[in-house]
Design a protein that fits this description.
Length: 200
């Protein structure tokens, strides 16, 4: 499948946000996969990046980016850098906003940094740490790219007013939960997904 065919498939599956689709067209998934999977870079399924981690299925990535309601200038925390692909898509959409992305697997931190260089994006900070405790600052959007067994309520204090927290919650299969911080925290269940569990 080509990149343009992938975009067509994502549209057929219901992705309508043009900014998300433009970012996927511009930030080439091929830059983020292992060499042996290069021919499968545009297929709509997850691929291993080693260390019990994956680069997520493109539809799942696009679905989550839409759900985050990203805006130019947003300050975003991503927990689980992996290959760096998702962080780069977010950074492309929110620039000149900034993305802080955290990863605890040392080898994946290096892999992601090399991949991010290929994009020319300068508004991403990769941190080798457990981001699930927060970074001591407030964000417009917080997204987990790995599954939590419980809702990470400690991170609500790191959300700005009208901020969004998106997280897959569950042990073996997950519900994608979207939290919006207004006067109170509102929750929306966006359906069933499967993610690798978060590591602390």
């Amino acid at each position: 499948m080509s990149l343009k065919e992938l975009i067509k498939e994502l549209k057929l599956k219901g992705i309508i946000d043009e900014r998300v689709l433009r970012a996927i067209l511009k930030i080439d998934r091929k830059w983020f996969v292992l060499d042996k999977y290069e021919n499968e870079a545009y297929d709509d399924y997850p691929l291993s990046i080693g260390f019990n981690a994956t680069i997520s299925q493109p539809f799942t990535v696009a679905f989550m980016l839409e759900a985050l309601e990203l805006k130019k200038g947003d300050k975003v925390l991503e927990i689980g850098t992996g290959s760096g692909y998702n962080a780069c898509l977010i950074a492309e959409i929110v620039k000149p906003g900034i993305v802080y992305t955290t990863e605890i697997v040392h080898e994946l931190v290096g892999f992601a940094k090399e991949n991010i260089k290929k994009t020319g994006l300068k508004n991403i900070k990769v941190l080798e740490k457990d981001g699930s405790e927060g970074l001591g600052m407030k964000f417009d959007k917080i997204v987990f790219t790995a599954a939590c067994e419980e809702i990470p309520k400690n991170l609500f204090k790191n959300l700005k007013k009208n901020g969004i927290l998106l997280v897959p919650v569950g042990r073996f299969s997950q519900r994608m939960l979207k939290f919006k911080k207004n006067k109170k925290i509102e929750m929306e269940d966006l359906g069933s997904f499967i993610f690798v569990p978060i590591r602390h």
